């Protein structure tokens, strides 16, 4: 895919995207996280790029949402879905679900939805998802205890390029290697000519180094796994909890991760731990051993009666020395015992092995002295030996672990990607469960092709013929954008065919019905499930939902609204038109004429449209064809509140709220004029006591005006 061919991707963004490992895959899969990892590409922009790439793939001109209200409904739906995603990735990825008029795009999104609706969002999976995030590249790795050495300038620059983590040194000969070995724990010689040389220190000859990066720098693969350790563990848990097919052996990956520290060091190796502890404790244990010997020896001296011969005393006094020789002669056994105790303390305290113990034993001298003092150079040698053993061991363990894990990197990345994708599906599944959704059935509008999207291949669902099916049929629809808790929402049935008016009492739910239709149509064209028992609809080219205007428009705004409707009524767009109380734009008489004209033009073009209006009668009178009117009917007034059946009654002009109230007044006034025994209270029930006319007459007169 030519990156710059994607709308909105300029040369600079294309350059950034080209830095990704596989930008085409990321674009193809709508992998927003991967796109957002390109330099300078924010997550929001990544979502827009992914959407544009999807549109380009489906040759989709976009612009399905034709009005502000349509876009608002889409935004609300998206937020409801995003609120059900655990990861930021899934929230962004959901933005790539946009309403499209293209059958291929709708089918592509529906495939994800179909799989999503099989998923069960258990608490355990959702918990595990909290720690999943797109894998991160580890920062620069720097290994200071190992270096590469060569005599060859060309090999030198190749090695520098291949191993930025290590120092690379030029040496003249074996002496140069030996010198390096004094400064580095391990020196890796790259030249064959060094094979078989005998140099002190850990010097390895590896002419194959450039082909074996894991052997030479095991830290490199390990850095990826340690950087992403928590996320990988969480991705493993997501796979286990959701029975997802894993791309690798989860036990092997987990045990590898268990052997790794957060900083890339090897964990859980007893020998390595022993060496590390011994190094940490060395100074303290030496001092403690020395103190022990001195305390023991002091006690022995205090308890001892020393008989000193006169000649010895003389020699002591004359030479001012010789107490040590006296000590070794008189207290040799006690000294040996004290030094033995010190050596044992040192060896056991540091859990040294035999070879280390042999060195450690020399830390306390055989020759008697008081106080007993350790040999600093022997302790230094012991430290060097322990450090070298630790470096060797750590290197071996790292190489082992790196060899196990390096081959799992691609699978580990897939593991995380799958876990993130599952979050997208679970968000859809949770939305579907919360709003009792069903997958809508598209009754295809392609001429001569009754195939359905989502219905039985090649035939219309339940025998419905594309020619005779209504444009939209909603059964048990529950508007997700209604500001009511789901259990307080009355399900609505509504069938829309052609261009129609929707009448009804105030607050009967006309606007909410338009919202429901808009939400259902938007979700269906996003390839998502709809909040209804069932929905059948034809594929629309766009959604033009005009919300009610607040108050009468001034001349300029009125003119531009009429222009908008001119575009709608004369354009080639096969979109769905929803309009709420357009009459509020100007005075009622003029409004009815304008609405009638728009309806005529739309009907001539076989459009699908619903116009909510309180002027249904006036519009019908003016319109040049028989405009169908549906009605949301009040079933009565209880305690001053309207009882409403929210489902529009087809081909029925609903009575208005004023009519219902006048009817109620007329009924009440009529029954007040009749006495308990059913006879008239006065000779003339329509005559009031003071001789004026009865209010019931007045109410009847008003009622008669409603026809
Ligand atoms: N299907 C429904 N289930 C439950 N409550 C609903 C439903 N539809 C509407 N309502 C309630 O009725 C209120 C009024 O609805 P809505 O604004 O859609 O009526 P309307 O007929 O457009 O009113 P108006 O004629 O005044 O513009 C909503 O705020 C909501 O509380």
From TrEMBL:
Keyword Magnesium tagged: no
Region Disordered, residue ranges: 450-469, 665-697
Keyword list (alphabetical) reads: ATP-binding, DNA-binding, Hydrolase, Nucleotide-binding
Question: Gene3D superfamilies given for it?
Answer: 5' to 3' exonuclease, C-terminal subdomain (1.10.150.20), P-loop containing nucleotide triphosphate hydrolases (3.40.50.300)
Which InterPro entries does this entry report, sorted A to Z? DNA-bd_MutS2_arc (IPR012401), DNA_mismatch_repair_MutS_C (IPR000432), Hlx-hairpin-Hlx_DNA-bd_motif (IPR003583), MutS (IPR045076), P-loop_NTPase (IPR027417), RuvA_2-like (IPR010994)
The UniProt record lists the Helix-hairpin-helix DNA-binding motif class domain at: 1-20, 33-52
> Would the keyword Ribonucleoprotein be found if you checked this record's keyword annotation?
no
Query: What family does the entry list?
Result: Belongs to the DNA mismatch repair MutS family. Archaeal Muts2 subfamily.
Query: How is this protein named in the record?
Result: DNA-binding protein MutS2
Write down the species.
Answer: Halovivax cerinus
Q: Which gene encodes it?
A: mutS2
């Amino acid at each position: 895919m030519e990156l710059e061919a994607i709308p909105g991707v300029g040369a600079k963004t294309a350059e950034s995207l080209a830095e990704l490992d596989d930008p085409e895959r990321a674009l193809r899969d709508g992998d927003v996280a991967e796109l957002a990892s390109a330099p300078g590409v924010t997550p929001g922009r990544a979502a827009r790029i992914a959407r544009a790439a999807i549109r380009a793939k489906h040759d989709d001109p976009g612009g399905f949402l034709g009005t502000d209200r349509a876009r608002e409904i889409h935004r609300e739906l998206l937020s409801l879905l995003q609120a059900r995603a655990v990861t930021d990735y899934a929230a962004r990825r959901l933005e790539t679900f946009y309403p499209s008029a293209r059958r291929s795009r709708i089918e592509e999104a529906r495939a994800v939805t179909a799989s999503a609706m099989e998923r069960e969002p258990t608490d355990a999976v959702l918990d595990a998802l909290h720690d999943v995030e797109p894998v991160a590249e580890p920062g620069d790795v720097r290994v200071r205890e190992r270096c590469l050495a060569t005599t060859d300038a060309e090999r030198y620059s190749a090695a520098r390029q291949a191993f930025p983590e290590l120092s690379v040194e030029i040496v003249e000969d074996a002496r140069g290697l030996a010198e390096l070995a004094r400064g580095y724990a391990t020196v890796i010689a790259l030249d064959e000519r060094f094979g078989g040389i005998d140099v002190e220190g850990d010097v390895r000859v590896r002419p194959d180094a450039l082909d074996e990066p894991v052997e030479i720098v095991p830290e490199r693969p390990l850095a990826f796994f340690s950087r992403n350790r928590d996320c990988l563990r969480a991705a493993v848990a997501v796979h286990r909890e959701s029975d997802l097919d894993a791309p690798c052996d989860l036990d092997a990956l987990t045990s590898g991760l268990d052997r790794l520290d957060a900083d890339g060091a090897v964990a859980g190796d007893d020998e390595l731990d022993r060496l590390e502890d011994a190094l940490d404790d060395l100074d303290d244990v030496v001092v403690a051993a020395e103190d022990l010997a001195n305390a023991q020896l002091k006690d022995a001296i205090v308890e001892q009666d020393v008989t000193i011969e006169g000649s010895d005393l003389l020699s002591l006094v004359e030479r001012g020395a010789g107490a040590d020789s006296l000590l070794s002669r008189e207290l040799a056994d006690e000294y040996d015992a004290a030094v033995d105790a010190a050596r044992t303390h040192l060896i056991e305290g540091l859990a040294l092995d035999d070879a280390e113990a042999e060195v450690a034993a020399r830390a306390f001298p055989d020759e008697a002295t008081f106080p007993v003092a350790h040999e600093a150079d022997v302790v230094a040698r012991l430290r060097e030996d322990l450090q070298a053993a630790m470096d060797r061991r750590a290197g071996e363990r790292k190489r082992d672990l790196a060899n196990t894990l390096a081959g799992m990197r691609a699978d580990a990345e897939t593991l995380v990607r799958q876990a993130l994708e599952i979050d997208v599906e679970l968000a859809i599944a949770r939305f579907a469960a919360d709003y009792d959704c069903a997958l809508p059935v598209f009754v295809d509008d392609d001429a001569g092709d009754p195939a359905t999207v989502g219905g039985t291949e090649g035939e219309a669902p339940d025998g419905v013929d594309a020619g005779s099916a209504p444009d939209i049929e909603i059964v048990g629809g529950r508007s997700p954008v209604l500001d009511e808790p789901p259990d307080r929402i009355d399900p609505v049935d509504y069938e829309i065919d052609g261009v129609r008016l929707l009448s009804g009492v105030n607050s009967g739910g006309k606007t909410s019905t338009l919202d429901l239709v808009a939400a259902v149509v938007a979700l269906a064209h996003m390839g998502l499930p709809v909040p209804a028992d069932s929905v059948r609809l034809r594929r629309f080219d766009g959604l033009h939902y005009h919300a009610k205007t607040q108050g009468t428009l001034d001349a300029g705004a009125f003119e531009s609204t009429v222009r908008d409707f001119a575009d709608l009524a004369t354009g080639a767009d096969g979109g769905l038109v929803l309009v709420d109380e357009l009459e509020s734009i100007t005075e009622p008489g003029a409004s009815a004429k304008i609405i009638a004209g728009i309806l005529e033009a739309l009907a001539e073009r076989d459009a699908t449209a619903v116009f909510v209006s309180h002027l249904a009668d006036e519009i019908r009178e003016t319109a040049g064809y028989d405009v169908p009117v549906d009605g949301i009917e009040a079933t009565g007034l209880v305690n001053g509140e309207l009882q409403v059946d929210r489902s529009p009654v087809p081909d029925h002009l609903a009575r208005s709220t004023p009519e219902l109230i006048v009817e109620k007044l007329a009924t009440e006034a009529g029954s007040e004029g009749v006495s308990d025994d059913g006879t008239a209270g006065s000779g003339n029930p329509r005559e009031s006591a003071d001789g004026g006319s009865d209010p019931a007459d007045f109410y009847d007169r008003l009622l008669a005006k409603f026809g």
